[in-house]
Amino acid sequence: MLKIFIQVMKNKHIETVRGIAILLVVLFHVCQYLRLEQASVLRQFHIPFDYLRMPLFTVISGFVYSLRPVQKNNWRLFLAKKIRRILIPGITWAATFFAASGYFYSYLNWHLLPEALYRPYFQFWFLHALLVVFVLVMLFEILQCIKNVVCWTITFCLSLLVSTFFVHVWPKNTTLPLVNESFFSWTGALYLLPFFLLGIGIQRFFYLKLKQAQINVLLLLFLAGALVREYKVYQGIHSSFFFRDGGVGMLMGVASTFFIMNIKIRNPPLAIIGKFAYPIFLMHILVQVCIDEFFKAMEVQAGGFMFPVLLTGSLFLPVIFAHLFDQTLFTRLLFLGRRRKELKILKRSPVWCNVLKAHEQKVP
Q1: DSSP alpha helices (H): ranges in 143-276?
Q2: Predicted TM-score (pTM) of this structure
Q3: Separation CA 193–CA 65 (nearest Å)
Q4: Is the pLDDT confidence value at 345 over 50?
């Protein structure tokens, strides 16, 4: 376990990419909250990343999972840990956000709260869908469906076919599985599953092994996806193929995430943000609502400063709250889904420094 933790901690590339992913998520929700006009520069800046935002977050989850995958003899413990890590804080923050938004906007209907806990509610659809993905991947591991590159490729391609089937063949009333009000966001899980499997495949078979020509092809597809998304918005194209979970959208999402995961990006500030990506994800929309209501209560017109204020608050206030919640076992479990404090505390001790030095000397 120590070796795995050191590997994750030393991999600043993954933490940087995670920082990029959460920054794109926060940027999207800030622009959405401010209801910026279509011609707004800020809105146009985040639109090209629609094919990248949540897929990248999911690919990283699959990559990190693959460092310590489930085994046949510990699947019960694995599932219990995922429920603790994902479901408990998801329910806590969904209920908190439900109560806060109902209080601020005067539509607090408590009889709707139970439904908000098992159906998609703002960003918490991702947690429900991710838990379903973990269950599916656990079955794949037990059945050895992703044990080698051939089995992984077949499973990955089948997951893409199933996902696109529910978009282009299966009738539904919504444009995206991730916003579909399905039980426990199972349709969102169909959208995320190919990207989670992609993260597993990258870590096991392809991580930083692509040739420059292959990376260049992925870069061209990434840029093409950004242009297609912009063109779709301006021209008002409503073809399902250009949805994020449509045929073209899935292709662009796979190419974009594959590209970013195979180039060496290391940025310390983004890596720090990436380290706290989970609490930022859980709290950022609630923080935006509270900041906005604070300015209204103080009768302060933020105007053009609202965007940087919301963006900065959404990134840094959750880090402060996470530190506070980390002080007791009850709050740590309830709000963060953890039983122990962050291991970064150990890094400051002389003993931990000696462990890291000894490990670095062994690594060529």
Answers
A1: 149-168, 186-201, 212-235, 247-261, 268-275
A2: 0.85
A3: 13
A4: no
